[in-house]
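User: Need the bound-state model for glutamic acid:
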Amino acid sequence: MTATHLDSISIRAAAVAPSATLALTARVRELRAAGNDVIGFGAGEPDFTTPTPVCNAAIEALQGGMTHYVPVPGAPDSRSAVADVFRVRNGIECTADDVIISNGGKFSCYLAIQALVDPGDEVVLPTPAWLSYKPMVELAGGTVVEVETGPGDNFLAKPEAIAAAMTSKTKLVIINSPSNPCGTMYSPGQIRDIADVIAGHDRAWIMSDEIYDRLVYGGREHLSFGSLSNVANRTITINGLSKTWAATGWRVGWACAPGEGGAVIKAMSRLQSQSSSSITSFLNPAVVAACTKTDDEIEAMRVIFEQRAGLMFELVSAWPRVTCPPPAGAFYVFPDVSGTFGCTSPGGRPISSASTFAEALLEEAAVAVVPGESFLGCGGNHVRLSFATDEDSIGMGCTRVLEWLGALQD
Ligand code: GLU
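Assistant: Bound-state model below.
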């Protein structure tokens, strides 16, 4: 690229790095297409197909001619179906007017941040955290204030640490439970304690990314901030089709924010009207079907994920030089691999970071994991493995890693 071309790119766009998770997913796809037998623990996407009632609703709507513009925040019946789920399952008092449906949970997060954060505002983020929150905050001109957590506390931020990070400039606190990348989650008591801290700050909103709220293991209970009376009016709850309904490619997510007379949802809707317009028209009936006809399918997938969580944890726990907290939700484990730093891989590569670990593992053992640096905080000591893949692949991939780790040289 010439200097002229570089000069053409906005400062904003030039500063954004591509998503490392999506980049790794693309790389695995390419390696497989070239005939490599790669086991992918990279992508945060279920290997199941989207439940049939959801697919059928979209097909019927498409064939029935639902191919024109739809209302910006979503068709009334799909907003209403989502509001019903938020009310009944999450205990959030809301109506269809308090809901906006957007092109993926990721775009819902982006719009919520754009709707709330001004230049100079601070956004408190427990880390390690999903790697897109920080770029989104920075695209809005805000500054991320990290609250660092670690494996010793199951990657859960203490209320007093969140309190210490909050100032008069705090506009938003982002909580993602169950967590991507950590696979751990806050208990209801911990959620209440954090809510009490945030309730003491008049300006601060909560963006509670609950995209994994139905993928919870060991009988744990998930509690939504939006159901708590002291923060309900300042909480934006994010969810969507991608994870629960194994529909990552559909790009359908939603947000609910009943507070302030629905001002945040209205602002997100204005932003959506000037950017993507709406979700794809014929996916609206699919949202209704997802919200009303798929409880059994969702539970069946959750049970399988829970079995995989147990298997993955058992196998990873047997790896030398590596430690890992047990997964409580979502479909990730986030082991600490810093015990390998300073070693040389079987193929002669020096291991000095999560990235060099992941690169050597992919090249030499054909196993893809996400290096943790982009997840911030102590992430640089960790790699993320997704167990949204079948048990045979989990077994085979973990055996390859075990053998590769066993051949590391000090
Ligand atoms: N959220 C998924 C992941 O972390 C999908 C990719 C992305 O958007 O980051 O793998």
